[in-house]
Inverse folding.
């Protein structure tokens, strides 16, 4: 999904749409993610000013939720389910394999791929599940993971 570049005017329109109410911070952060794809330092500064919060307050909420990215994503976003049903079916070792084979820790990106955890994709019957560029894929073995990742540039 192509996101637009962060602009203070657009960001302020979004916060005004929520009445600049500090209790709407999580909803506003989701709106920023939809619009800009991440919550950067300038977004944190603007949110703190517009909602009359400290930057530490905003940082605290951004870092608490796994959904909020603090840097732009790479071309492809690969999410590995870390919730219970997938863990029971080996998602931890799949995540270890993914980290090793991509050379990325969770929440890191290289020039091609961003690797992130996700907490249930609603595909528990087909654990372990991953999501690649918004598409859910079930029953992913380490070998299948490698094939999926190798095929990514063909469909970018
Ligand atoms: S626990 Fe992984 S899809 Fe539900």
């Amino acid at each position: 999904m192509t996101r637009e570049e962060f602009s203070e005017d657009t960001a302020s329109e979004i916060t005004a749409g929520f009445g600049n109410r500090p209790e709407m911070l999580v909803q506003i952060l989701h709106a920023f993610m939809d619009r800009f794809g991440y919550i950067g330092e300038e977004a944190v500064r603007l949110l703190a000013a517009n909602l009359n919060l400290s930057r530490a307050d905003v940082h605290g909420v951004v870092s608490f939720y796994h959904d909020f990215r603090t840097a732009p994503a790479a071309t492809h976003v690969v999410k590995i389910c870390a919730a219970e049903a997938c863990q029971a079916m080996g998602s931890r070792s799949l995540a270890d394999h993914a980290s090793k084979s991509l050379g990325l820790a969770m929440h890191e990106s290289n020039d091609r791929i961003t690797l992130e955890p996700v907490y249930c994709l609603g595909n528990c019957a087909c654990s372990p599940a991953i999501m690649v560029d918004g598409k859910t894929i079930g029953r992913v073995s380490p070998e299948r993971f490698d094939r999926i990742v190798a095929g990514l540039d063909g469909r970018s």
